[in-house]
Design goal:
alpha/beta
């Protein structure tokens, strides 16, 4: 069986979805939880109506490997229009209530929740929707129904995944 290829790749489709949402709703404050290598933040720093970008990740090593300074340490990016953009990276857990993550127009969680243990997923749900309460949230997670299309014989698509849901399970959550 030939490996399944998505065109464009799935990760790019996820980013395009977020970019389309941003184009339609023009949020000023955006946070990416589980930002990992900050790929999404890098793509969003050029949108002129975004004034603040925040990334949070629990993996301090991945933030350091990419040469990021762990924060809270904001820096200001000036684009050709001389618009100041505040970008802050935090080393921390998405299950903790942090006042720095209040007041956001959009919070993204791209391929994050499947890495959380059950107890952490419950805490995360309370923190995100109860404490942070952003105007909008975009969450993506692998769809277990598509796993049969992949040639690998592993249970999950990534060794760190704790679960992979069907569409119905995700909607129920």
């Amino acid at each position: 069986m030939d490996p399944v290829r998505f065109t464009p790749p799935l990760y790019e489709q996820r980013y395009e979805f977020v970019k389309a949402y941003i184009e339609a709703h023009k949020p000023k404050k955006v946070a990416d939880l589980g930002c990992s290598e900050c790929t999404l933040l890098h793509k969003l720093k050029f949108w002129d109506y975004i004034e603040e970008l925040v990334g949070v990740d629990i993996d301090e090593d991945i933030l350091r490997r990419k040469g990021h300074t762990l924060t809270p340490l904001p820096f200001h990016y000036l684009d050709p229009l001389e618009r100041a953009l505040s970008v802050t990276l935090y080393h921390g857990s998405v299950t903790e209530k942090d006042p720095a993550l209040l007041g956001f127009d959009l919070i993204t969680c791209i391929e994050l929740i499947e890495h959380l243990e059950t107890k952490d997923l419950e805490q995360f749900q309370d923190v995100l929707f109860g404490f942070m309460a952003p105007k909008a949230v975009v969450i993506s997670t692998p769809n277990v129904e598509f796993n049969v299309l992949f040639s690998e014989k592993t249970r999950f698509r990534h060794p760190d995944h704790k679960f992979e849901w069907s569409r119905k399970e995700f909607q129920s959550w």
